[in-house]
Structure to design on (203 residues):
């Protein structure tokens, strides 16, 4: 079954983001969806031809994670935007962040610092599916460095295309003026296994 790009044009007009940045970003996302589907078609063709031992098959397998993760991370990123930026809209998650980091502000400082990691990549708040613990993690490439068994909860794209048209090289300004004020916290909270997270927290 082919993947279909999800509709995110409702993000246009979002404060802190120019429509040009968002249109370019949506076009990039469409490319990941297209390439994911092309690779699936290639796998099916090579399997039908009995060529699963070919270099083409092997290299496509190596590359699939890049395209698929590029597609999925953008979906998580776009869908956790166009909110009010008020973490009070996710009271259970906010309480968990406060318990684990000592305060919401301490978590936010750590996430922003993670997002300022030198290089291209993503800042992601993960939940460990084994024990419910939360982590702020930097991911360089789409398909490298993800924590095994962890679910992305809050995703921030920190590649240049996400901010340079609007903020030049001032990534910190983009994070503070565009990303955080637009976080859709109720959507982020839906991604959390709250019961598992509660078990990980001290009483």
């Amino acid at each position: 079954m082919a993947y279909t790009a999800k509709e995110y044009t409702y993000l246009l007009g979002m404060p802190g983001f120019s429509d040009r940045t968002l249109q370019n970003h949506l076009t990039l996302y469409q490319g990941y969806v297209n390439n994911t589907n092309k690779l699936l078609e290639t796998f099916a063709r090579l399997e039908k031809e009995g060529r699963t031992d070919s270099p083409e098959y092997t290299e496509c397998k190596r590359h699939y994670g890049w395209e698929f993760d590029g597609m999925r991370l953008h979906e998580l990123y776009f869908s956790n935007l166009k909110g009010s930026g008020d973490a009070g809209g996710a009271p259970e998650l906010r309480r968990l962040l406060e318990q684990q980091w000592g305060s919401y502000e301490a978590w936010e400082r750590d996430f922003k610092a993670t997002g300022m990691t030198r290089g291209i990549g993503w800042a992601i708040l993960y939940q460990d599916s084994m024990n419910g613990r939360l982590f702020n993690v930097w991911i360089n490439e789409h398909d490298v460095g993800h924590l095994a068994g962890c679910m992305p909860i809050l995703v921030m794209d920190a590649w240049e295309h996400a901010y340079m048209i609007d903020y030049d090289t001032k990534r910190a300004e983009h994070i503070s003026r565009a990303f955080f004020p637009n976080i859709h916290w109720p959507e982020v909270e839906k991604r959390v296994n709250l019961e598992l997270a509660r078990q990980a927290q001290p009483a």
Q: What stands out?
A: The chain has two domains: 18-79, 87-200. Residues 18-79 form one domain. The chain has a mean pLDDT of 95.
